[in-house]
Amino acid sequence: MTLLSLESIPALQEEVRALAAERGAVILAHNYQLPEVQDVADFVGDSLGLSQEAARTGADVIAFCGVHFMAETASVLSPEKTVLIPDLDAGCSLADSITAEQVRAWKAQHPGALVVMYVNTTAEVKAETDYCVTSSNAVQVVEHIYATHGEDTEILFGPDMFLGAYVEKTTGRKMHVWDGECHVHAGIRPRDIADMRAAHPGADFLIHPECGCSTSVMEYVAAGDVPAEGVHMLSTGGMMGWAAAAPAGTTAIMATETGMLHPLQMARPDIDFVAANEAATCRYMKMITLPKLRDALRDMSGVVKVPDAIAERARLPIERMVAIG
Questions:
Q1: pTM
Q2: Which residues of 168-180 are buried (b: 16+ CB within 10 A; e: fewer)?
Q3: Count of C-beta atoms within a 10 Å radius of residue 165
Q4: Cα three-residue angle 278-195-138, rounded to 5 degrees
Q5: CA distances from 32 to 65, 89, 238 (A)
Q6: pLDDT of 173-188, one tens digit each?
C-alpha cells in the first residue's frame, strides 16, 4: 500500500470527486475502508446498507470501495449499472472459505434443508442459496424462516461459524453451521476483552458477531461476569446507531476491524472509542486507496460484472435479505 502525504490527500479527493461527477458515478465505501477513502464517498456503511444503496441508486456507475463480493452484490442488484472496484484483487478470507461446489455437496447431504448464507460470499455461492443475511439481520432472517417454513426447518448456515453460533444462541435453535471464519474477526479473542475490561472498567462493549470473542462474551453475560447492559452485539451499522444515542463522555471498546474507529470518531468525537485489538486490520479492505479509486474512475477500469445466469439465481436470496432489512 502506498502511503500518501497529508498534503496530497485533499488534492486527490478533489480529483476523485470531479471524476465521479464526470462519470455519473456514486462512490460507496465500507466502514472498514481507509479514512481518506471513506471521506470522499457518497455513502459509507455496512454490507446491508451498501447493498440497499446499490439497489436504489440512480447513478450510471457504482464505484465500490470494499472487497470483491460486495462489488459482485452491487452488480447482481443493478445489472444495468457499471460496477467498478479500485482493486480487483481485494478479496475476502471468509468468502474464500466456501465454494459453490461445497454448497451443492452440503445440500445433497441434507435434502430439503434451506441454505442461509452470509453476504460475505461469492455470487456463485449466493446462486446456490435460499436466503442471504448480514450480521445486522441474520437473527431476524432465521426467525422469519422458522415462522414461515415451520419450527422444524433444517437450516444450513454459512460460512461464518461465529455468526452462526451467535444466531444459534440468540434463537435457541441448532443449525448446521459451516466451519469458516474471517481472519480479522477470528483474531479478536476472549483474552482481548478480558484485558480491555481490566484497562477500562465500566466501558461499554460494541462487539461484531463475527468476532471470535462473541459467543464467549454472551456466556460471560449469562454467567453474570459481564453486565448485560454494557454489552452490545452489533453490525457496523448498528455500532453507528449506538453511537448516535450514547451519552457524551462514554468509553466504548469496539471489537471489529479497526477501520470502524474512523466513522465512529467522526460521528461522536465526545465518546472515547478504543479498539479491542489494534491488530484487527483487513489487508484486503486496505488494498483500496485513493490513487486506485482515481484510476478506476478515470480509466473505467476494475469492472465487476456477474454473468447473467449466475446473477439471476443470486438475485433472489439477496433481494430477500434487502427486503427483510
A1: 0.87
A2: bbebeeebbbbeb
A3: 18
A4: 65
A5: 10, 16, 14
A6: 999 999 998 888 888 8
